[in-house]
């Protein structure tokens, strides 16, 4: 089973094109500047089988690929590698964010970590670091984070066409949810002023 924090079936701000996005639940890294601390705890997320998630992806129209983020996807490398292989069989791309560096992942010398790496087209590594805050590149918030083109699906030229953006949605219970990358403190302040609502994420 894959433990999930949140799913967005169609987003344009978590990688190239329209993407099915899975935030996994659980992270052992505990980076000091993490802005997603509610994804750290294991055992509190929603559990889906690989097949359940694959069916949801298969039924979603007009997506270019799937993005894994978290939480820490490599804590669930076995199940995600199986899902990623199925995603690739549909001709979709796989983008994965990780708080580990690529070198750290390779040094684990773990079968499932390696299997997951083998399925990823674009790996974005490194946790968010406040002292290196930098929004000049797409989908990342600090300059220590690196893009690794593990296949020829994406390239620096493709990436350079994108800018950081955010999406805002009103959830069923009336709360405003934000995803993507930007100066969240400023965005929340502006939205609060304009809407006078509680913002949850
Ligand atoms: S790896 Fe990502 S989710 Fe985990 S603590 Fe670091 S920034 Fe947060």
| Oligomer status | single chain
Give the rounded overall mean pLDDT: 92
> What is the CATH architecture assignment of the largest domain?
Alpha-Beta Barrel
What's the number of helices? 6
Q: What is the top-level CATH class of the largest domain?
A: Alpha Beta
Quick overview:
The protein has 201 residues and is of the alpha/beta class. Helix content is 27%, strand content 24%.
Give a topology summary.
Blueprint: E1 2-11, E2 19-24, E3 46-48, H1 50-59, E4 65-69, H2 77-89, E5 93-98, H3 102-107, H4 111-119, E6 122-125, E7 146-149, H5 156-159, E8 166-170, E9 176-180, H6 184-195
Parallel strand pairs: 2-4, 4-5, 5-6
Antiparallel strand pairs: 1-2, 1-3, 6-7, 8-9
Helix pairs in contact: 1-2, 2-4
Bound molecules: iron/sulfur cluster.
Iron/sulfur cluster (SF4) binds at residues 27, 29-31, 34, 36, 39, 70-72, 99, 127-128.
